[in-house]
Write a structure and sequence with these properties.
Blueprint (H helix, E strand, L loop, with lengths): L4 E4 L5 H10 L5 E6 L10 E5 L5 H15 L4 E4 L14 H26 L6 E5 L12 H21 L5 E7 L5 H10 L2 H11 L8 H12 L10 E4 L7
Helix pairs in contact: 1-7, 2-3, 3-4
Length: 242
């Protein structure tokens, strides 16, 4: 990853925060975005405001990278939200919010980043999907739909961009110890029931740390995965095989 220019969305906490902390040890240049700018720039990290659902802000972010670096080597689409709801109690307003944040944001990021990625010799895109991308889940109709679409988006984009030498892959995490899972714990309203549910769902017997997901994201972003494209890799403690 040395000297690579890397754009990461949703970096204020959780997986995104672990990604930039790990990348910061690899001598690359990182553009770390979030809806609110929460940090001061450092030698290798540039913190930018970016609402991933806002097309104009995407244009501004890519313009900054173009002006500052002239190219982009890696795009990591990490930003997303998790909100529960079944078909009857999910409003169209909530549906649109989840689809826009989890899916349309990735479309926008890739759309505007591709011209700069083409200027890199070994460019790659990594999208954050979910275990719900590849199997059903109760009371999560909009979230699961948004994440499921990322699988085919990733594969289709990989085919479109292969001729330009740009790889596109996705990571499908199981439950991770982040604010998303904390919201589920709040819904269950029982520490004991939550822990049992998480243990039962994952054959490994626990949920993931953000770092464990970040490790796989960075592997897919880098040259060590140079013969991999169009794939969605479960990182789920065995949940997808149960």
């Amino acid at each position: 990853m040395k000297n690579k220019i890397i754009l990461v969305t949703g970096t204020s906490s959780g997986i995104g925060k672990s990604i930039i902390q790990t990348l910061n040890k690899k001598n690359c240049k990182i553009i770390a975005t979030s809806r609110k700018k929460i940090n001061k720039n450092t030698k290798n990290i540039y913190f930018l405001n970016l609402d991933v659902t806002n097309e104009d802000q995407w244009k501004e972010t890519i313009y900054f990278i173009k002006k500052k670096f002239g190219k982009l080597d890696v795009l990591i689409n990490n930003a997303g939200i998790r909100i529960s709801g079944n078909i009857e109690n999910t409003s169209t307003k909530l549906w649109d919010k989840i689809i826009n944040t989890n899916l349309t944001s990735i479309f926008l990021g890739c759309k505007y980043a591709v011209p700069l990625l083409k200027k890199s010799k070994k460019a790659s895109i990594v999208n954050l999907a979910s275990i719900t991308s590849i199997r059903g889940v109760t009371n999560m109709i909009a979230y699961a739909s948004s994440k499921g679409a990322i699988v085919t988006f990733t594969a289709s984009l990989a085919l479109d961009l292969a001729k330009h030498g740009i790889r596109v892959n996705a990571v499908a995490p199981g439950a991770v110890n982040t604010k998303m899972v904390w919201s589920l714990k709040k819904e269950i309203n029982s520490e004991k029931k939550f822990n049992k549910r998480m243990k039962d769902a994952h054959p490994i017997g626990r949920i993931a740390t953000p770092q464990e997901i970040a490790n796989v994201v960075i592997f897919l972003a880098g040259d060590e995965s140079s013969f991999m494209t169009g794939l969605t890799i479960p990182v789920d403690g065995g949940r997808s095989i149960r």
